[in-house]
What we know:
- The complex is a heterodimer of chains A (324) and B (353).
- In chain A, 60% of the residues lie in helices and 17% in strands.
- Chain A has 324 residues and is α+β, with helices and mostly antiparallel strands.
- Chain A has a ten-stranded antiparallel β-barrel, surrounded by five helices.
- In chain A, a hairpin with a 1-residue loop joins strand 9 and strand 10.
- Chain B is of the alpha+beta class and 353 residues long.
- Chain B has helices at 78-83, 94-124, 128-135, 151-161, 171-174, 200-205, 209-224, 227-245, 257-262, 270-286, 292-304, 320-327, 342-349, and strands spanning 4-9, 17-24, 27-32, 35-41, 45-47, 55-59, 62-69, 177-181, 188-191, 195-199.
- In chain B, helix 11 (292-304) packs antiparallel against helix 12 (320-327).
Amino acid sequence: METASSTTSSSQSGRFSLEFTGKGSELALIMLKNLFLTIITLGIYRPWAKTNFRRYLWENVQFMGDRAAYVGTGEELFYGWLKLFAIIAALFGVSNIVKVVAPFLSVPLSIAGMFLWAFVFAIATYSGLRYRLSRTTWRQVRFGVDKDKEQTKAFLRLYAKGVLFSILTLGFYYSYFQNQKRAFLVNRMRFGTVHFSYDGTDKDYFVLNAKGLLLSIITLGFYGPWYMASVMRFKMEHTQFQGARMEFTMSGKDIFFCTLIAYLGAIFSFGLAVPWIFAWGLGKIVENIHVVGDVDFAQVHSMKSDGSALADDIVAEYDLDLGF
Amino acid sequence: MRSYRAKYFDGETPSSVEVLVKINEAVLEISKDGRLLDTWPLKLLHRDPVHISVIVILCQGEPDARLEILEKDFLEEPQLKVKFKKEQPLQFKKSQVALWLSALVVAVGVVFLAVKPVTKMIARNISHAREKQMLGAITQLRPPTMCQLSVSQGIAFEKMLSKVYPLQEGDKDLGIEFHIIKNAQVNAFALPGAQIWILSGLLEKAQSPEEIVGVLAHEIEHVKQRHILESIVRSTLLTSLMAISVGDASAVLVVDPQTASQIFTLSFDREMEASADKGALSRLRQSKVSTQGIIDLFKRLDETGPASKIPEFISTHPAGKARIEMFEPYSIAADNKPILTSEEWKDLKRACH
């Protein structure tokens, strides 16, 4: 659904909505094929399964009448997964050897391990997002996230400070950390050569979260969907591209009923309806995302992007929050 | 030469151009308003098999460009029919669903059927000594309250045990450790590392030494027939397979201490239980101990225990009635000598007080 008016030959102004054209039946078939091949290959097919799934979802998201596309490959994710497998196995091996050979080193090693994982997670969050966006295209122009040594160091500093302060303040700083992380990433995110920008303030995000958490506790969790809607709205409405701002129009009530229907549908169908529920739920979310304002795609040019498939695997494996 | 409508993306700018494409000998011509925009050699074309309603064509030489053909009969062009034969996207058809669903059922069935013989083979190829070495430490993860037997209680227990262990060839290699654990439940377990735990509740509620001897014979058979190792290997295989299938790389750490401690919740399947019963019967017959003890115990458990209310097909143990029927023909023992004197028996029953 679009309401647009052309201001110049290249720029467009209006309210542009995203659309999802995926079908539960097609998704079910992909899931079925993925599950079968994953089982008979003892899990080796999983990266290709993940890629098939992403390709289907991406290709069925339309904006201004054109489909997005996912251009990542199963091979990339497979090699990333192999590396992750080797790292985990090596760490597990080393920690067990140390436990046997020098048991007194177990505690310092565990502490060092925690720091190491925090470092790995920080890098993976940054690099994982870079990977996913670099494999996402619309009208054949790739998205991406800037990267250089200085920016990586800055992100690590932000991450270290965020984790440390969140612990020291018993979680009170966590909202600030989340917002700073999002601001850092969105401000380096780009479509082709043009950057996105984010202007949500830490204080506003903190107040939003404090209110949401408090009301969720008081209402024994019933406020959860309204809290989720307000967070999504905040994130979207503070994200800009050129002269346009994003908008999220799903209400707490919509999220509540969607969640309820999804749970009940999954339970009463013994899980068989999951592909249909997934396609329907994703459609509801996608259709409530809009871009409002002026965009001028003549200013956008294609630009090479990259990212680590290993990082993407870590993000998926440890369910790291990319904030998107 | 027929032209087809298409959307053309050049890969340089986010422009979406409605074009006409047509095949001209060995190339695909892309044109707009009569002006030729690009030509793609047919031999470099491939179809992107994404599962969507439009036909996506990519060109090897131009990795970032893309054509979305809007007319399906484009694929009927003779040059393309053969070329794209193998690049068909998955399409939702009843036949496809039936095919993949049957394949999935077959795959799950094969895995299900293969797990048992594979685990048996692995378990049989690991020596008892190696098993003890590998799994002995697991029981240390959850140290029980062990009862310290007095000298006389120890002698009484040994007398009882000697009826069924060591008795057969290879028994000495098993190196089983027996422990009496302070716990009110009426039960006994065979555990990793060739350990058998007899709960004090069983001793208290048992009405004769023969009942305990019958239970010991049963648990010894679990150890001898490698049921514990088999269960662990099976559980590990299935857990890692499931975890890998749903995408959990940490499944490589499946035998970590936490998982190992979960082995306490492992149960043997009905086949293993029936096999242990057969082995126990053989031991009791060999040592001329009456099976009446174990029959009495089964009868009481059947009357009072929750097991009696569970249908056989979902229970891990064979139904009490079937077990009793197996032991019944041998209830009249050749050797009627009591295993323990009544004083010894009373003393042993107080083991954990």
